[in-house]
Amino acid sequence: MAIIVHLDRLLVDRKITLTEVADRVGNTLSNMSILKTNKARAIRFSTLAALCKELDCQPGDLLEYVPDPVIDAGSG
Amino acid sequence: MKMLGRASISWVVKLTLDIAWYATLVLAVLVAVDVLGGVVGVSAGRLDLAVRFELDPGSYRVTSEAYGVEQALVTDAVGKLVFGSTNVSLLFLYFGVLLVWFGAALAIIYELRQVFRTLVDGEPFVRANAVRIHLIGMVIILMEIVRLVILTLFSVFVRDNFSVEGVTLGLAPRPDLGVILVGLVVLVIASVFRQGTELREEQELTV
Fold first, then answer.
1. Is the ipTM of this complex over 0.90?
2. pTM for the complete prediction?
3. Residues from chain A contacting residue B201 (CB–CB below 8 Å)
4. Do the Cβ atoms of B205 and A39 come within 8 Å?
5. Residues of chain B contacting A, Cβ within 8 Å
6. C-alpha distance across the termini of chain B, in Å
7. Sign, CA torsion B191/B192/B197/B200
8. How far is CA B148 from CA A50, B163, B175, in A?
9. How much is the CA Rg of chain B, to the nearest whole Å?
10. What is the pLDDT of residues B146-158, one digit of tens each?
């Protein structure tokens, strides 16, 4: 996965639970769990905006781009 | 009337397929017993071969007074040649053909039952359905090719071993392009199901 979601880290920093944040952003707990465990394929701008508002952060605090490792088959 | 879910057209089709599944199984067993009876020598094994034939216009005069037709041709007729035999190798060959035939029919009915089960449950876009429908399409196309090969062998066998005065038996079979087209349409539907499944999964994992 090239995009990593740091929801777990932000929850620890803000000292709130996943259930609480799900309630505050008006989304389901299962959806928040999908996001937290990096299983999500896409995130709506409305969800991102609501999370940023409730967690008092920027999209860049929540999401990080990590390049996929390049496997060099010809080396050695 | 609704198409998907309980008490829907899908449910009626699923019920019909369930009945067809068991009926085909029973029929397969009955036919196998009929043929294997000849192999073990209990009775003459019953063979039922599809044949194409035409009537010799010299022997049979087909006319119509009302429309002033002096000689019409009876050609490209399709019928069945049913006979009993105690020839073990012939019966084994016929049994092998039946196995392939009933096997394909049962495979298609089984996969259709599984597909319609998901339609009754209201969950049509699952990955397994795309695989099942693709398999059905492949079997339909493959069986048309197998049918042509088998009927060609039948026609050679009938032509070489049976004769009726004034009738030309064992004409070569014709490919049924409609069946091939149905198979291709089913393959396309399978890929539509695959895309539908991907969209559904995408939607489920969008938060």
1. no
2. 0.79
3. 41
4. yes
5. 201-202, 205-207
6. 34
7. positive
8. 64, 22, 6
9. 23
10. 999 999 998 999 9
